[in-house]
Amino acid sequence: MPGSVKTEAIVLRSMRYGEADRILHLYTPHRGRTGAIAKGVRRARSRFGGRLEPYFRLHMVLYEGRSDLMTVTSAETISGHPRLREHAAALDSAARACDAVSRLFDTPEPHPGVFALLCNELALLDVQPEQATHANQLAFRLKLLLAAGLAPHLAACAVCGEADGLSAFSGAAGGVVCSGCEASGFALGEEAHGFMTGALGAPLADAPAAGALALRQADRAISETLEHHANVRLRPALPG
Ligand SMILES: [Zn+2]
Questions:
Q1: Taking 70 as the threshold, does the pLDDT of residue 78 lie above it?
Q2: If you measure from the C-alpha of residue 205 to the centroid of ligand 1, how many angstroms do you get, rounded to a whole number?
Q3: 88-104 vs 134-147: helix axis angle to the nearest 10?
Q4: DSSP letter at 214?
């Protein structure tokens, strides 16, 4: 039924369309990922100003008609995250975080926890841009896996339930595996295992530190879990 929808939203992508319009990919708490068109936004006297840009958190009123795209009626800034934009690494991390949400939660299905997580990540990168690290990006992805119901099994062997000798990770099994079952996985050291457990249990700002090798192993564990169980491939967690 046509009508107006009030919602908070984060702008994931903003694309030029036609002479003066923009098409937005938005992430919202109760309508998941949704598309909207903002008309006349690129005219000098547009009432939207510059706030329909990626990483803005907005209060929006959207008109839902017959089209797949809703129409932006109004947009008020909650946070534009201005400091994040001054740091190349923080800006890159914000882009990867938005892209990960966009690929893993690409439907209108509501996931208010994912919206809150993305808000936290953008706010963290804005207040502490030095947090734009590989560890932060992986901690964010682990929390997305948890929200998607795909959190890896980390407490015991995902194949046989053995609690000792957990030496590998299997994307197909969905977690760590013991030395008896490791044929199905790749080597995952204690440090990587500890990082994943710690990151899942702590707020984003307190994600544990880990060495480069452990982070690469955790990264592979996350990627293989996503490929096997969600059929999703994300952009690399690190540039380059
Ligand atoms: Zn086992």
A1: yes
A2: 33
A3: 20
A4: H
Distance 207 CA to ligand 1 centre (A): 28
Cα separation, 237 vs 217, in Å, equals: 12
What distance in Å separates the CA atoms of residue 114 and residue 121, rounded to the nearest whole number? 10
Residue-wise pLDDT tens digits, 153-196: 999 999 999 999 999 999 999 999 999 998 889 999 999 999 99
Phi then psi for residue 117, to 5 deg, are -65, -45
CA 39/CA 21 separation, integer angstroms: 5
Please tell me the distance between residue 180's alpha carbon and the centre of ligand 1 in angstroms: 5
Strand partners, 57: 10, 79
pLDDT at position 194 is 97
CA of 132 to the centre of ligand 1 (A): 35
The number of CA neighbours under 13 Å toward the Cβ of 220 is: 16
Say whether 220 sits in a helix, a strand or coil: helix
Distance 17 CA to ligand 1 centre (A): 53
- What distance in angstroms lies between residue 160's CA and the mean position of ligand 1's atoms? 4
